[in-house]
Amino acid sequence: MSSPSCRRIPPAPSSCRAPIVAVPEPAPKLGIIAGGGDLPVRLAAACRRQGRPFFVLGLKGSAVARPDEGIADEWAAIGEVGRILALLRAAGCRAVVMAGNVARPDFKTLRLDWKGVRVLPRVLAGARKGDDNLLKALVQIFEDEGFAVAGADQVLDELLLPAGPLGCLGLGPGQEGDLARALQVVEALGRVDVGQGAVVAETEVLAIEAAEGTDRMLARCAELRAGWTARAGLLLKLPKHGQERRVDLPTIGVATVEGAARAGLAGIVGAAGATLVVDRAAVAARADELGLFVVGLQR
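Structure tokens predicted for DUF1009 domain-containing protein (299 residues):
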């Protein structure tokens, strides 16, 4: 007979075993490649709230130094590809997000480092096919270098325009014709990788967005409509056909609302779930104050 000290203790019933809890891996350190505007600032603030480590690399000529808001830890010119990659690696970044306004570079005068020279043929090949293909080439370069590329909405999901009215006002019965016409125009633009927006009033196309960007397009519309007293028409923004969602989604902010008001428009329509809204609460409040609608179109 075995001694008491040698007796085997049966395992505890399965119902008494401690549950195995999966601990999620922390998000990798994020490199924010910052252009102009408020979006990089908001992404940095979101990382702070989430406790996510981040590093901000400002692009010379596009980003503006805002040290109190985290812009930027280091700086590089857009042609200094090797420096950009080296700074991101030295900071320990494993993921990157490209955010903010960046002017299309003049490739004839662009100053390049050695890495920039090596990747230039790929970038030029994409640029010849349009801005979206240019951005896809840049995304591929970062992925080839081992970085995960994230979209701004993946870092801060409250950026996306929801379906329906953002503020108090919705699309009125008199705007269906303008919206239908704008959809035709913007979808045609997207198929040839030209722009993401158009302004239509009383079914007349007042402007289409190209290299100038939304703010300048709206300023041009304000000049065209000088003297008009009644609000009419709308700005429509949609992603391009085959859009690389991680970069350059259509974006609206308070400045967009104010520009639409100066242009005498009745409101703004964007693709729900595919349009970035920089400071959703402020955009809704300013639209209500100015008497404009901001509507997310479910497609």
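Residues 30-151 form a domain with the Rossmann fold fold (CATH 3.40.50.20).
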